Structures are given as structure tokens and as C-alpha cells.
Automatic annotation (TrEMBL):
GO biological process assignments: tryptophanyl-tRNA aminoacylation
Listed name of the protein: Tryptophan--tRNA ligase
Binding site for L-tryptophan: D131
Molecular function via GO: ATP binding; tryptophan-tRNA ligase activity
GO cellular component annotations of the record: cytosol
Residues holding ATP: Q8, P9, S10, G16, N17, G143, K144, D145, V182, K189, M190, S191, K192, S193
Keyword vocabulary terms for this entry: Aminoacyl-tRNA synthetase, ATP-binding, Cytoplasm, Ligase, Nucleotide-binding, Protein biosynthesis
Subcellular location: Cytoplasm
Short sequence motif 'HIGH' region: positions: 9-17
NCBIfam families given in the database record: trpS (TIGR00233)
Species name: Sporotomaculum syntrophicum
CDD domains on file: TrpRS_core
Record function comment: Catalyzes the attachment of tryptophan to tRNA(Trp).
Motif range ('KMSKS' region): 189-193
């Protein structure tokens, strides 16, 4: 099975990214053909500072490698290193109906949050469809916020196949119920643009401050605490197995629990969970050339896989006038 997913280098990666996508991708690499990439073309829709984009792309590469993405086993690259994807985007653009894009929630949400209403932002889902179709991917692990984008990618693949004959694999979203929407500090979806994130590689002081700032209700200490919609509970369970979850639930339902104590505990859990990866990450940051070489090798492998589908698409639409 070919599994593919991408992430925008548009800020430090957070627990939502980690549980919704990164950790799941890394687990998949054991038994599947994994394609994982950093979508810097997509990031151009919201990052307008070249030095910042370079830094964030490099940082995200270090994050993935530190977390265990194996560049020999998997294909790991930077989207912009395989510019063929923009050629496919153009082909797809011409069979993508305006109505399909006009219904995009993500475009409406992003412009409402102040991201410029550019043509790039509007056609973002077409570039994303190209990302997926160019590599013949079957399954796309994402968080719930990408569900509509995946539906658009499927529609585009089906429309293309119907118009020009069988060309692309029709991909499927892979959303895991437990990690579909990781909440942020304020209870909304954790997102860079809401400013409610917990970064996976935050320094200790920042991490402590963020965790202590998780929104809690005002249930008195001597009463049972609600579980439903409790951000602190939901964030803690991300790090627990079934047995651990049952035990935590018991504690919340037993009068006397102090939210402050749980926050301190959760801070330690997060810090300890990421500590070994952080060490690895620090080493990678110091070895810039290794990271750059790794990304170049990844781009070569990605380009090889892309050629198959790009050539097929060029032929099926008739761009190969020589034939
Ligand atoms: P991006 O960069 O916003 O997020 C990367 C991944 O993290 C997931 N995610 C979450 N999951 C659960 N809870 C959250 N709070 C949370 N926040 C983020 C996202 O769902 C996503 O899976 N358009 C994509 C990038 C992309 C892509 C692709 C993905 C471009 N081309 C091709 C798959 C296939 C995006 O902006 O993700």
C-alpha cells in the first residue's frame, strides 16, 4: 500500500500535527511504502518571508528525522524540489470546477483569519490533489480538518479519469477517530493560526507555561470533574493507552482532584515523551549538511516515482504532440 501525506512548514510543529499525522506516518513506514513531504509551495500561501520559510522548512525536516522517519526506508522530500507537481496542478486545474473550490471551508476559514484571499489560496486544494495523484498514493493519513481537501482530490481524480481515461489512483483519506481533532489550549482545534498550540519541541519553560495555561472549568475541588469536552483530560489521554485512560477517568471522577496537579503531571509527561527525540533533533540541527543531502536524495526518489504518473497524464491530455 502506498501511503502519502504532507505538512506545511508554516510554523513550529505541534501536538495536533504530531498525533494527527506525524506519529501515524512514522508508524506506517514499518509495513508500507511511505511518501512524506514538506509542502513549501503550499506554505507560500501564508508565509511571505523568504528567510523564515527556509528556516521553517529545515526545522520541519529535522523534526521528522528526529522523530524516526527513516529516509532510507521511506521517501521523504521537500515539495518544491520536485516542481513537476506544479505542471500537474495546471492540468488538474482545467477539469476542476469553480463550484468545487468555492465550497471549500478551508479557504473561508483562512481568509476569515486574515490570510490574504489570493488565487493561490483559492486553488490550494488543486495543488494538494496534484501532490497526491502525482505519486499514485492509495491512503492519506490526515487530521479531520483535511477531510474536505481529500474529497476534492478524489473528485478531481475521478473527473480526470472520466475525461481522459484511466490515469490516476483514486485516493482515500485515513482519519483516526482518537486523533481526528486534537484540541488546543483554549479548546478549539489546535492550530498555528489560533495561537493555541503546544509545540512538540518547545523549550521547558515555554512548555510549562503553555500547559499551565490550558483552559479548565471552575468545578470545585471537592466535586467530580467533567470528562466530556475537558481539554486537559483530552490532551492527557493522547499519551495514554486504554488502561491509562481508564485510570485517568477514575481520577477525574473522584472528588478532590486539583487541575493544577494534573497540569504539572501533564507537563512532565509531554517533556519526557519528547526528550529523547529532542536530543536527536539537536544533533541533526548541528549537522545541516547531512539533513540537506538527505532531502536531496529524497527528492530524487520522489521525482522518479512522479515521472510515471506525469508522463501518463501528459500523454492522456495530449501534451505530447510528437506522438
Ligand atoms: P497542515 O500543515 O495544516 O497539517 C499537517 C497535518 O496535521 C494535521 N493536524 C491536526 N490533526 C489533528 N488535530 C489537530 N489539531 C491538527 N492540526 C493539524 C492535519 O490534518 C494534517 O494532516 N493541506 C495540508 C498539507 C498537505 C497535504 C498534501 C496533506 C499538502 N499536500 C497532500 C496530505 C496530502 C495541511 O495544510 O496540513
Amino acid at each position: 500500500m502506498r501511503i502519502l501525506s504532507g505538512i506545511q512548514p508554516s510554523g513550529a510543529l505541534h501536538l495536533g500535527n504530531y498525533f494527527g499525522m506525524m506519529n501515524r506516518m512514522i508508524n506506517y513506514q514499518q509495513n508500507n511504502e511511505l511518501f512524506c513531504f514538506l509542502v513549501n509551495y503550499h506554505a507560500l500561501t501564508s508565509v511571505f518571508d523568504a528567510a523564515l520559510l527556509r528556516k521553517q522548512t529545515f526545522d520541519a525536516a529535522c523534526d521528522f528525522l528526529a522523530l524516526g522517519l527513516d529516509p532510507d526506508k521511506s521517501v521523504f522530500w521537500v515539495q518544491g524540489d520536485v516542481p513537476e507537481v506544479t505542471e500537474l496542478t495546471w492540468m488538474l486545474s482545467n477539469i476542476t470546477g469553480m463550484g468545487l473550490l468555492e465550497r471549500s471551508h478551508s479557504y473561508k476559514d483562512k481568509t476569515a483569519k486574515g490570510i490574504p484571499a489570493s488565487h493561490g489560496l483559492f486553488s490550494y486544494p488543486v495543488l494538494m490533489a496534484a501532490d497526491i495523484l502525482l505519486y499514485g498514493a492509495d491512503k492519506i493519513p490526515v487530521g479531520k480538518d483535511q477531510k474536505q481537501h481529500l474529497e476534492i482530490a478524489r473528485d478531481v481524480a475521478i473527473r480526470f479519469n472520466n475525461t481522459y481515461g484511466e490515469t490516476f489512483v483514486v485516493p482515500e483519506a485515513d482519519i483516526e477517530e482518537d486523533f481526528a481533532t486534537v484540541p488546543g489550549l483554549d479548546g478549539q482545534k489546535m492550530s498555528k493560526s489560533y495561537g493555541n498550540t503546544i509545540e512538540i519541541f518547545a523549550d521547558e519553560k515555554t512548555l510549562r507555561k503553555k500547559v499551565m495555561g490550558i483552559k479548565t472549568d471552575s468545578t470545585p475541588v471537592d466535586e467530580p470533574k467533567p470528562i466530556e469536552g475537558n481539554v486537559l483530560y483530552d490532551l492527557y489521554t493522547l499519551f495514554l493507552d486504554e488502561k491509562g485512560k481508564t485510570a485517568l477517568k477514575e481520577r477525574f471522577l473522584t472528588p478532590g482532584l486539583r487541575y493544577g496537579d494534573i497540569k504539572k503531571e501533564l507537563f512532565e509527561v509531554i517533556r519526557d515523551y519528547f526528550a529523547p527525540y529532542k536530543k536527536e533533533r539537536d544533533a541533526l540541527v548541528r549537522d545541516k549538511q547531512y539533513v540537506l543531502d538527505t532531502m536531496q536524495k529524497g527528492a530524487l526518489k520522489a521525482r522518479q516515482a512522479a515521472t510515471v504518473y506525469l508522463e501518463r497524464a501528459r500523454h492522456n491530455v495530449g501534451l505530447d504532440y510528437q506522438n
